[in-house]
Amino acid sequence: MGRTRLPQKQPSPVPSLSSTKQKKVSRRRATNGWRPVGIPTEREVFIAGEDETALRQCYEGVERDGEVIHVRDTVLLRSGPRKKSLPYVAKISALWEDPKTGELMMSLFWYYRPEHTQGGRDPSAHCEVRLEWNRAKI
Questions:
Q1: Which residue among 89, 118, 134, 136 has its CA within the 20 to 30 Å range from the CA of 82?
Q2: Distance of alpha carbon 48 from alpha carbon 21, whole angstroms
Q3: Is 107:50 a contact under the CB 8 Å cutoff?
Q4: Residue 114 has what DSSP assignment?
């Protein structure tokens, strides 16, 4: 008895990751849709976990869907998945691109709430502001 050989299935070609369309998609995904605004300038930035500043390509702002955020803007950053979670408050000191990943990054100055400090939130320790109107006869 003879054996019949079945034709072997050829593997389908894998799309090249080097195509420009693929790069745009991956970059857009890496930056969550944010695009840099302005001409990049090389500046020193603070990077979390690093002792020294690093030179990075910095932008004056970032844009997504018509919304623009600039350096020196104060922003609210989501602190958790729940809508009731209070956001973190920060001021943007630099908007820059990670040279390894192309991801857009921010260097921030953080604002703290009293409950985030060592003393915590103590209403008795905080000053109460009382406004009084003075009426004067002219």
A1: 118
A2: 32
A3: no
A4: G
Spans in the chain with pLDDT lower than 70: 1-30, 125-138
Phi first, then psi: give them for residue 44, nearest 5 degrees.
-85, 135
Can you say whether the dihedral through the CA atoms of 74, 79, 57, 68 is positive or negative?
negative
d(CA 36, CA 63): 6
User: What type of residue is 123?
Assistant: P
Backbone angles phi, psi at 25, to 5 degrees: -65, -50
Contact between 104 and 38 (Cβ < 8 Å): no
CA 52/CA 2 separation, integer angstroms: 74
Overall pTM > 0.90:
no
Query: Which two structure tokens, joined as six digits, stand for 70?
Result: 């600039």
